[in-house]
């Protein structure tokens, strides 16, 4: 089968031929329709997970996936062939990924069925970024009317977080450059926009003189952002920054329940899946390069 993989730490990914996987007992073979690019892919290529995960080269990239169940292994009861599913590739070894025509996943893994009304290409962009945003917003415990500063609002996680916070009634301040970025985050529900390339402190203090109730740290200077909280303000970070007891560092929790929540919200029109561009499988290396250069929302690779 065709897949996009890399053969050594730091090597450029490319389109290659690899054996089509065969599901064993308790496994599911998925015909992949689409996958999306995440920061996890860049970190994998750069070797950031050495010592955490084993690399089994060639490593196929793509943490997210969406597709159709082709075959189920012995003992699988959770799903049947023909079902549309999406989720996150979660294995102890870095080898398999969604940038491929087929993928084997464990039956008891972080995936779920795709509800009616949600396209597979959009489902492919929900998994990791959506789960990270939902985990972060849940951890913040926002109440209606509270002010939330989202630093890194233009990326995939930020785009979902702005919407989830807005849905709870929070007043969202999003970081974005003037122009296309500002238009993008306002369209997602941001009440205020601050330019992180200018005097961020002054802009935020003009909106919230006593500081913001909450900060979501997806990008930017952690200490600077922490100082913009009110006296009882809290902070959640996806970048392992937790300077005090009012701050929490989180990891995405893409369990089936969280994925169901996101999928139903997207299918019902309450959550916009911000796919900015799609690529064919042979264009996936370019998608990864475009992501590294900076983009708005999500980039999707169509594999089917």
UniProtKB/TrEMBL annotation:
GO MF assignments: oxidoreductase activity
InterPro entries reported in the protein's UniProt record: ADH-like_C, ADH-like_N, Chloroplast_QOR, ER, GroES-like_sf, NAD(P)-bd_dom_sf
CDD domains according to UniProt: MDR_like_2 (cd05289)
Domain named Enoyl reductase (ER): residues: 10-301
Domain of life: Bacteria
Position of the signal peptide: none
Protein name as catalogued: NADP-dependent oxidoreductase
